[in-house]
Design a protein that fits this description.
The longest helix is centred in the C-terminal third of the chain and has 21 residues, at 310-330. The strands form two sheets. This protein has a seven-stranded mixed beta sheet, with helices on both faces. The radius of gyration is 23 Å and the shape is globular. The protein has two domains: 22-307, 3-Layer(aba) Sandwich (Aspartate Aminotransferase, domain 2), CATH 3.40.640; 309-453, Alpha-Beta Complex (Aspartate Aminotransferase, domain 1). By secondary structure, it is an alpha/beta fold. It has helices at residues 22-27, 31-35, 42-45, 52-58, 84-92, 110-123, 134-145, 160-174, 186-192, 216-225, 274-280, 287-291, 297-304, 310-330, 346-352, 370-382, 413-419, 436-453, and strands spanning 127-131, 151-155, 177-181, 198-204, 229-233, 250-254, 268-272, 335-336, 362-366, 388-389, 399-402, 425-429. Residues 1-29 are annotated as: Disordered.
């Protein structure tokens, strides 16, 4: 556990009806001893890549303790051993989760590890580890990669919480500084990286809230030329983009969004090299181990049951977003959606996406002013029931927020302007409940009411 070679996230056997001893583990000739020869899941480590759904289907299926088609929930906080000397060997790193030896659920838990394996398969990485929130995943991986006095280069357009972490908390608490750049200006990115001091290049694959698209292959190439770790937040585009397959080193998610899909769970994940994940769980130096953003095993079970239909959900989110964006544009609205041909990064995204998943489940409508944005959202929720005024995304209902005064409120007015966040920018996470035409008629009704009120003016 304390060393890179620890096989942290492959743990053997679906047959846990009895506690195995160290001797049995060392001498056994069952599936467990075959599994522990490799620390990588075949799908996650394989060079052959079809698409995320195929990778998930090929990942190991964990059965329940008594043969149930669903895995059992390991709700224990602590774990017993059969031999006294085993505890010492576990704490020294000689025995670990790769051999079905667990110490404490803040460190490793079998149910959480199973979800982590699914996430590694989804993103095509060697390993993954699930956390209690998206922000805990982001902060933990950055704290593992960046030390006091080091430097980060990050996109100007980030989720407000991430921006606040880099702008305010890290400099004050950790002596870590950040230079924010226009992620599409590759020369600016290149020039901002200080060789030897900059440790991480951080950006979102599809940005919050402006839906700009990062050139992941080229940014990864620049980062690697400069010797920095490339970290990509893929929260807005699971299944659609696979940053690790495009050159990124680490992928983070707020699982609370599309992956969960129910707006009822807070969770996150770090997907990346086994060496990184194991270092984050190190007993003496690991950010996840020592800061303790532990995922509850019951939460991990819930999420593991939702991931198999993530691809189906994403396709419908994206399909409806594309249809609505196209129709809104024809109505004369200022629409931002990467699937539209006039989006600045449309061709770039088209070259990177996984086939058949669409262009993302979010769109933005720029109403110009906060007053008009609020009026539109009020009508859409309270007059026509098109969706709900709420932050977050990936829910089966459409969620709407005026980003400048909500999820991006941590940014100053100047920072919002640089990031391209208009005061009237309405971010919509398009849901899939109800029929497409039913929901579209609700949008049209609200827009017509707004036009009649004189607050919108001509659609043209």
């Amino acid at each position: 556990m304390a060393e890179t070679k620890t096989q942290a996230y492959v743990f053997p056997t679906n047959n846990n009806s009895r506690k195995r001893t160290e001797r049995e583990d060392m001498d056994g000739d069952d599936y467990a001893s075959a599994a522990k020869k490799s620390m990588f899941l075949p799908t996650a480590a394989s060079a052959a890549w079809e698409d995320p759904a195929a990778a998930l289907a090929s990942a190991r299926h964990e059965f329940g303790e008594h043969g149930g088609v669903n895995m059992s929930i390991e709700a224990s906080a602590t774990f017993t051993v059969m031999e006294p000397e085993t505890l010492r060997k576990m704490f020294s790193g000689e025995l670990g989760a790769d051999r079905d030896f667990f110490i404490y659920s803040r460190h490793f838990n079998p149910t959480v590890l199973n979800l982590s394996r699914q996430m590694a398969a989804l993103e095509g990485t060697e390993a993954a580890y699930c956390t209690s929130s998206g922000m805990s995943a982001i902060s933990s991986v950055l704290l593992q990669l960046v030390s006091s006095g080091d430097h980060v280069v990050a996109s100007r357009t980030l989720y407000g919480g991430t921006h606040a972490l880099l702008t305010h908390f890290f400099p004050r608490a950790c002596n870590i500084t950040t230079t924010f750049v226009d992620i599409h200006d590759l020369d600016m990115v290149r020039n901002a990286i200080e060789v030897g001091k900059t440790k991480v290049l951080y950006f979102e694959g599809m940005s919050n809230p402006t839906l700009t698209v990062a050139n992941i292959p080229e940014l990864s190439r620049i980062g690697h030329e400069k010797g920095v770790t490339v970290v990509v937040d893929n929260t807005f585009s699971p299944m659609v983009l696979s940053p690790a397959r495009l050159g990124a080193d680490v992928v983070v998610h707020s699982i609370s969004k599309f992956i969960s899909g129910g707006a009822d769970i807070i969770a996150g994940v770090v997907c990346g090299p086994a060496s990184l994940v194991n270092s984050m769980m190190d007993l003496h130096q690991g950010s996840l181990m020592l800061l303790g953003p532990t995922m509850n095993a019951k939460v991990a079970f819930e999420l593991a049951e939702r991931i198999p239909h993530l691809g189906i959900r994403m396709k419908e989110h994206c399909n409806r977003a594309m249809v609505y964006a196209t129709r809104m544009k024809k109505m004369g609205l200022k629409v931002i959606y990467p699937g539209l041909e006039d989006h600045p990064q449309h061709e770039l995204l088209k070259s990177m996406i996984n086939k058949d998943y669409g262009y993302g489940g979010l769109l933005c409508v720029d109403m110009g002013t906060e007053e008009r944005a609020n009026r539109l959202m009020n009508l859409l929720q309270n007059y026509t029931q098109f969706g709900f005024m709420a932050v977050s995304l990936g829910y089966y209902e459409t969620l709407m927020s005026c980003s400048g005064s909500s999820t991006s409120s941590e940014l100053s007015n100047e920072e919002k302007e640089l990031a391209g966040i208009s005061p009237g920018l309405v971010r919509m996470s398009i849901g899939y409940i109800g029929t497409l035409e039913q929901r579209w008629s609700q949008f049209e009704k609200a827009l017509n009411r707004m036009q009649d009120s004189g607050l919108f003016g001509s659609k043209k």
